[in-house]
Automatic annotation (TrEMBL):
The chain crosses the membrane at residues 12-29, 72-93, 105-124, 136-155, 184-205, 240-258. PANTHER family: INNER MEMBRANE ABC TRANSPORTER PERMEASE PROTEIN YCJP, MALTOSE TRANSPORT SYSTEM PERMEASE-RELATED. The keyword Lipoprotein does not apply. Residues 68-258 form the ABC transmembrane type-1 domain. It is found in: Cell membrane. It is a multi-pass membrane protein. Belongs to the binding-protein-dependent transport system permease family. This is Multiple sugar transport system permease protein. The lineage of its organism: Bacteria, Pseudomonadati, Pseudomonadota, Alphaproteobacteria, Hyphomicrobiales. InterPro entries: BP-dep_ABC_trans_perm, MetI-like, MetI-like_sf.
Length: 272
């Protein structure tokens, strides 16, 4: 049984983590509600008269709503393709042994180790040669390179937790390999598939580097528009923070609503 001191230290540690995690969101939202003079005050103002002027200015800009629509298209298409391609690959990795399996698995994991800034120039040159710059296709293709491994990684652990006896019983009943995958593994793996889809959508929605390098006028995602308010002579922090809040708010609400399912999906594959 834990002592009162250990429980107090545990609670204090959790409180510190919560404050450290939530403070940037508080600062962004509060800054979006301050006048420009209050934003530049030193020391910072903790008590102020809130205003919605920055939100009115941002929502009056047609580029903002258009960019949110572009982000929604790119993130949705990327997530759909990543799940469609990633779940069969995860099933194969979870249930079959073949040459190079460990190397392929390491390749999926190591994809997240490469910084986007390292690949930005090569990707730009390749996209320029293929005439894909400033299009939905180039963003979807490049986002798949880091979202597809996430889907495979999460779904593989999810499928490994499903008892193999179910597959053997289905084979005795004459079920084909595809039927087993569709009728057994997909329904039982829904929590992991949902979690991988959520992460894929969030990563695609928030990505900035590739969108900034590969798009110009026809396609501009919401993070790119947020940076476009900055110029060499002016930093309208109120507009930037208001745009950032509009970008983060839908994903945050969505994550809160599905947090229970996310935790269930992440932990189901941890034990057998």
């Amino acid at each position: 049984m834990t002592s009162p001191l250990s429980r107090a230290l545990h609670a204090l540690g959790l409180l510190a983590v919560i404050v450290f995690t939530l403070f940037p969101f508080y600062w962004m939202v509060s800054s979006s509600l301050k006048q420009q003079s209050d934003l530049l005050a030193s020391p910072p103002l903790w008590i102020f008269n809130p205003t919605l002027d920055h939100y009115r200015a941002v929502l009056a800009d047609p580029r903002v709503l258009s960019s949110i629509g572009d982000s929604l298209i790119v993130a949705s298409v990327t997530t759909a393709i990543a799940v469609l391609l990633g779940t069969p690959a995860a099933y194969a990795l979870a249930r079959f042994d073949f040459r190079g399996k460990s190397d392929l698995w390491f390749w999926f994991i190591s994809n997240r180790m490469v910084s986007p800034i390292v690949l930005a120039l090569p990707v730009y040159l390749l996209a320029n040669q293929l005439r894909l710059l400033d299009s939905y296709a180039v963003l979807v293709l490049i986002y798949l390179t880091f979202n597809l491994p996430i889907v495979v990684w999460i779904c593989t652990d999810q499928f490994r937790s499903i008892p193999g006896e179910l597959e053997q019983a289905a084979r005795l009943d004459g079920a084909s390999q595809f039927t087993i995958f569709r009728r057994i593994y997909v329904p039982l793996g829904v929590p992991g598939i949902a979690v991988s889809a959520i992460f894929s959508f969030i990563f695609s929605w928030n990505e900035l580097m590739y969108a900034l390098v590969l798009t110009r006028r026809n396609v501009q995602t919401a993070p790119v528009i947020a940076t476009s308010f900055m110029s060499g002579y002016e930093l309208p922090w109120g507009k930037i923070m208001a745009t950032g809040t509009l970008i983060v708010l839908p994903v945050t609400i969505f994550a809160i609503l599905v947090s229970r399912h996310m935790i269930r999906g992440l932990t189901m594959g941890a034990t057998k």
